[in-house]
Amino acid sequence: MKLYNQDCLPAMKEMPDNAYDLAIVDPPYGIGADIVKETKRVRHTKYNKGNAIRKGYSKKWDVKPPKEYFDELFRVSKNQIIWGANYFIEYLRNSSCFLIWDKMQSFTGADFELAFSSFDSSCKAFRMTRIEAYSSGDWRSVHGSKIHPTQKPVALYKWLLTKYAKPGQTILDTHLGSMSSVIACIDMGYSITGYEVDKEYFDNGVSRVQRHLSQGRLFGLDFNLDIHYNEKK
Question: What 8-state DSSP symbol labels residue 7?
Answer without folding.
Answer: -
